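SEVERITY: medium
COMPONENT: batch folding queue
REPORTER: lab tech (J.R.)

DESCRIPTION
The queue accepted two submissions in a row. Attaching both inputs and their returned structure tokens so the on-call engineer can compare them side by side.

ATTACHMENT 1
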Amino acid sequence: MTVRPAPDLPRRPDGELPAPRPRETRLRALDGLRLVAALMVAAYHYGGRGGEVTGSWGASAQHQFPTLHTYFSYGCLGVQVFFVISGFVICMSGWGRPLKSFFASRAARLLPAYWAAVLLVTAVFALPMVAQKALSPSDVMVNMTMLQMPLGVDRVLGVCWTLWAEVRFYALFALCVVLPGASRRRVIMFCAGWTLAAAITQTAHQPLLDTVFMPEYASFFIGGVGLYLVHRDRRDVYAWGIVVVSFLIGQHYAVRSLWNVSDPHAFAHRTSLGIVLVVAFGFLAVAAIALGWLSWANWRWLTVAGALTYPFYLVHEHLGWVVIKVLHRDLGLPSAVTFALTIASMLTLAWLLNRFVEERLGPRLRTALNRTL
């Protein structure tokens, strides 16, 4: 057997060799965690809240799920779990990548399924037999830009407020880390600077600063970035410090916004301990993946689950309302059966969107953006 000599590594200006970058492999457990977070949000939208889903069930979801509705109400924290995952993934995908490639990959990942979901939900809501309000053509066109939130336009997809938070995170990370070139020191400074800026923003009461630094959600993204640093070097004290501080701040914001035991009109009463435990689950699950403790979860179907998560997340809420009405009110199926079949139908639709939209348009859009920028 012939042994090939290792290629020379470029040296830093001080003559030292750079720290070796860990070999990236597919973290399939992270794909599975994505789907878990999406199913948490779906449980919240179908059985853990009031609002428009009540019309689909014909009565409050509290009556449909007398015991489970309280547990389902914690499902909204799946969004915070998503943000931790996003911080990890964006740091991993942006490391060593030029800005053009980073932008092209993000656009190709987000836009095709999003465009298809906006058009699909608009078309379904426009049907005479669907008792849901469709937006005007003008508002739908603005929604195609993904900028409806800052422009004050009604949303086609209720979940797209989280995409607006994601886009702002991408912009901050691209400008502060990807553009100048990712390094451990730069990422640490980015996390520290954003944490401080978010804390100052909380006291400044300036809408512009709130929009840019997102104090309510920043710590979850930052915690995910810190966990990627842990993935690169589990002995990195600074990385662990970022993770711990982010968790402590994140649970504070989650409890402050979601704790409602004192509200007599609340759909379901969440406890502060329950909220903290769900937030801790998100951080601990990503930490276990970062440390390699879940490397045994390497089944190929988890990659499929990860691929279905984004389109499922986009369409499950509004189209789920339609399916619930048909199955429960029109066909008379029991609540539990309706719930399970609605989840299954949305996963099937997500597979179709992934197969015929994302897999076909995503690579073409990425290639076009990489070529023209």
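ATTACHMENT 2
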Amino acid sequence: MRVSLKDVAERAGVSVKTVSNVVNNYPHVTPAMRARVQQAIDELGYRPNLTARHLRKGRTGIIALAVPELGNPYFAELAGHVIDEAARHDFTVLLDHTQGRRELELLVTQGFRARVMDGLILSPLELDTEDLRGRAEESPLVLLGERRYDLPYDHIAIDNIAAARQAVGHLLDLGRRRIAFLGAREDRAHQPAHLRLLGWRAELADRGVPVDEALVAYTEGWERADGAVTMAALLDSGQRPDAVFAYNDLIAIGAMRVMSERGLRVPEDVAVVGFDDITESRYGAVTLTTIAPDKQAIARLAVESLVKRLDAAHGDGSVPESQEMHPAFSLVERESTRGRVSG
């Protein structure tokens, strides 16, 4: 039998309105009264009807998260954090997989599924400013990723150039000088790969190390196989780096596999740094040093930004100014640069 607000009110000896104020976390309730109602809620096992609550505010209670590749562990882990954060605000998350294709990214931004979602968190690869400037859909939109848009949308991204410089600086501090960059992309000037390559070049130049463009290796994709193919091609070309900075952990893992097959030791012969700090980076035969974005902070900022705009749209607050937000990142040192720790 479903427990109602009335049941809780009778148990606590208060009005239904008071119970509603506690459930909805309204501030004008004394601590003693709040504790009394909460005890009744706990004793009866009351669960709020979230669907009804959202409908009263003109919402569906669903937000969408659209990412390029759900099979990529980074996006899978990020999606998990978004789902957790959304649940804290009583929202359910609908996942969309755009495959990094412009037509699918356009589809999700132009009102696709608008009747079943209140807002959208999007990690785009192909959309440009003009694509989004022409967006007719009025539901809130929060952008993830490093592409810059001069538009009134909240945008959340780590500083990829600074992160790349920290990775390369770490390798230089170890005495490495022939540092390859694996994962460059053609004709993608605003995407993370380009920004991380800029950071690679900048750190080398500032530290007085010659920038050898022959050590820049291009990939077709972001997977382990791309790292393996590219590393093999680099070695076959006669280039022998003493370190690798990879666009992401998957490329780094694929590259390390080829090094092992070629008899190269990590990190003795080639030190390796990846990017993303996916779970797999901690459990390989050689654990991977990596740049770790604060994925939980990215998710929290994205969901909070969306909820604030939804509240404002329904009269529960002023409309916030759009913001550029830059969550923290850190370099996590593991065996691929420091070697195995004895003992």
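NOTES FROM REPORTER
Residues 122 and 146 are 12 Å apart (CA to CA).
No errors were logged for either attachment.
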